[in-house]
Design brief:
There is one protein chain. With 124 residues, this protein is an alpha+beta fold. It contains five helices and six strands, in the order H-H-E-E-H-E-E-E-H-H-E. Strands 3-4-5-2-1-6 form a six-stranded mixed β-sheet. A hairpin with a 3-residue loop joins strand 4 and strand 5 (92-97).
């Protein structure tokens, strides 16, 4: 599924429904990283920031529903964690983080060299 000639906007397009669903549920921020050139374990890495524990569960459920709709089998790690939940669908990894988890793990900065697009909740 790698295509090195895609712009970040073209790369993002297949993941747009998932990102839109997370933003519709008012994720504070959603970032899509293109890791196809810098990682051997996945192609797309999405980081969504939740407002609270309850909100993190809502975002996790939303992401799970969208992965099912996209027919992407996935496994979930950290389902009970209040800081970080990871949903691994192979070429796509979705991370739901609390604000505290965002500051602690700094996932976005780990992949600072990778092209990315960041979206913020417009109601914030």
């Amino acid at each position: 599924m790698k295509d090195n000639n895609k712009t970040i906007e073209e790369f993002y397009e297949p993941y747009r429904p998932l990102v839109d669903a997370l933003l519709d549920k008012h994720a504070l921020e959603v970032t899509v990283h293109n890791l196809s050139e810098v990682s051997g374990f996945t192609e797309a890495f999405i980081v969504a920031i939740a407002r609270s524990d309850l909100h993190a569960r809502t975002l996790r459920d939303t992401a799970g529903d969208m992965l099912d709709e996209m027919e992407l089998p996935h496994r979930v790690e950290g389902e009970e964690s209040s800081r970080w939940c990871l949903m691994d669908a192979g070429h796509l990894v979705v991370n739901i983080l609390s604000r505290e988890g965002q500051e602690y793990y700094r996932l976005d900065s780990l992949w600072g060299d990778a092209p990315s697009l960041k979206f913020k909740d417009t109601d914030e």
